[in-house]
Amino acid sequence: MGEIRQLNEPHEFREAFPVMRQLRTHLTEDLFAELVGEMQEEGYTLFALVDEGEIRAAAGIAVLTNLYYGKHVWVYDLVTDNKARSKGFGYEMLAFLESFAAQNGCSCVALSSNFERVDAHRFYEDKAGYDRVSYVFKKNL
């Protein structure tokens, strides 16, 4: 369907911002570009799925290793443009991330999803074959 490419430059981050903002509504374009730049230094990689010259989906990931998953791909951000939902772009991006994980010697792909994102949960479990395995806990300081 689309072409998935890695975004490396600040102007590319800004091109992805209108789609990413649909998931990360609290961010400004400037803060998004700044944070992605900082996160790249920590191993974050941003991908975009481009179809007919438009970014239809975006995903931000890192290859990590921990005691419970071993080496894995952690998906920090995964969003499909609201105007392009239910057209297979999210599934295509997730399949790409799974292939990327396998090619990089990872044992799994893992992500967390906000409680309110019921449609996303249905997608992950029913269409993409993911298991709900834990809760994430957070305390603001």
From TrEMBL:
The keyword Lipid metabolism does not apply. GO terms for molecular function: acyltransferase activity. Gene3D superfamilies: 3.40.630.30. Keywords: Acyltransferase, Transferase. InterPro entries: Acyl_CoA_acyltransferase (IPR016181), GNAT_dom (IPR000182). PROSITE patterns: GNAT. Residues 2-141 form the N-acetyltransferase domain. This is GNAT family N-acetyltransferase. It comes from Fictibacillus iocasae.
